[in-house]
């Protein structure tokens, strides 16, 4: 808020300075008017300087707090995800640096990263839903059923999730024989790319939202497609967190906002909107722990949060006794 006011005052000061110059350059105005304009300009200049000082102080405090949390993060998350495999899912427009920082903290928590999956813009294109549906129908196992209300992205999410995650500890780290050709077909179609060995199934997933909300006429549909994918991963595994950066305002193309607006999915899938901050990366680990206990929450600083971060988790549950989210 101070940052916005600072820029606003700066702009006003510039225009007033121009006005004062015009006033000084004409003899049509009386001296009191010139003096009044000069006083207002001086006051605005001082307000700008005061706001700049406040902003610098707040940014300094934030940097200091971030440094402290980053320093103690290893102890805050130690052992929190021991015995768990985590799938990382990147989305079009997501931040590589945010993903890398989160991956480091997940590793510090004892998690093993099964691999990375990067969804492409082609997968989110509404014009390609017919092709997507045809591919899903061709590749799905015979016993895989979809609700009548399922969208093409819902169906694709169900199929892909069966290939990437599982709730059965005995199947962790093994491919799903029922979906052997699914991922390669999606890769060939330019719908996603993979790195590592994500076919050796994980128990948990973290999806990284785009840095900025999607824009344009398809923005809401694209955001909804990512919510479908997060929901599919959550249903098929032990839990999913959608991690990103809080949007300045509520817009249709914000996947985190779209998830939180869907009351049913928000009960199951956790969203963390401070993934670019040290505290947010701790929140991702705690959220995955919470997911393994069958609970979900909305965490961070943006609209619709239930708390800044989840409660400090209890002792690490045994990998053989965990239940799905």
SSE order and pairing:
Blueprint: H1 2-24, H2 31-77, E1 85-90, H3 96-108, E2 112-119, H4 121-124, H5 129-139, H6 152-164, H7 182-188, E3 192-196, E4 204-208, H8 219-236, E5 239-243, H9 255-261, H10 263-266, E6 270-272, H11 278-292, E7 298-299
Parallel strand pairs: 1-2, 1-4, 4-5, 5-6, 6-7
Antiparallel strand pairs: 2-3
Helix pairs in contact: 1-2, 2-11, 3-11, 5-6, 6-8, 8-9
Could you characterize what this model shows?
The protein has 325 residues and is of the alpha/beta class. The protein has 2 domains: 2-72; 78-299, no CATH class. The chain is built from 11 helices and 7 strands. A 7-stranded mixed sheet has the order 3-2-1-4-5-6-7, with helices on both faces. Helix 3 (96-108) crosses helix 11 (278-292). The chain is globular and about 90 Å long. The two termini are 37 Å apart. Residues 317-324 have low confidence and may be disordered.
